[in-house]
């Protein structure tokens, strides 16, 4: 893998995103709007439901949005023949994937920063831990979504099929991550399944930050999320095809 080539790929992706304002709005604005909508729904409810659900959704929304956009964008590169032309040059698969991950990682950082500023600064979300660590976890969650999107795009032939991976890959994690029912309250089989799903650790990290749990627990969850992201990139490099048959 060449750092120069990897950075060139990342720069190319960022230039493409800058020329696509609709995608930029989807990536940066929509998560903030969804969090605001949720806060508005629960504004007059007793027990501060937004305080319970808000931290978990700071992990969930970036993950879902980045997964969707990355999987569709990568498939478009392959089906349009762009990937085949790029790989015909002195560039490896890992250069391509890491370049994409870096580009979307930059976008993820901006997205997470906006979401955290809106949630903590305007929606009064209580955070017992470090706001900086909260932002770092949100960035890791978004990067994880990008890495998984890069991986699953190798198994889709059309953009519609790429979108179909959303309920297959993301929804089970959404149901078992502890957002609706605490993971400790799940049946044993489902609890064991949630232990091997990366979104569970992302939500756990956010929950620890709101409850003032030891910072070491947050860092442990963060390392697990990062490990899943790196593993997804490795698998993506092994399964990436030059073009769609």
From TrEMBL:
Similarity comment text for this entry: Belongs to the ABC-2 integral membrane protein family.
Q: Which organism is it from?
A: Nocardioides anomalus
What is the protein name stated in its UniProt record? Transport permease protein
Subcellular localization is given as: Cell membrane
- The domain of life is Bacteria
One annotated Gene Ontology cellular component of this protein? ATP-binding cassette (ABC) transporter complex
Molecular function, one GO term? ABC-type transporter activity
Q: How does it sit in the membrane?
A: Multi-pass membrane protein
Q: Where are the transmembrane segments?
A: 24-42, 54-75, 96-121, 127-151, 163-181, 218-240
Q: Which UniProt keywords apply?
A: Antibiotic resistance, Cell membrane, Membrane, Transmembrane, Transmembrane helix, Transport
Record bears the keyword Cell membrane: yes
User: ABC transmembrane type-2 domain spans which residues?
Assistant: 22-243
What InterPro entries is this protein classified in? Answer: ABC-2_transporter_component, ABC2_TM, ABC2_TM_bact-type, ABC_2_transport
Phylogenetic lineage: Bacteria, Bacillati, Actinomycetota, Actinomycetes, Propionibacteriales
GO BP terms: response to antibiotic
> What Pfam families would the database entry show?
ABC2_membrane
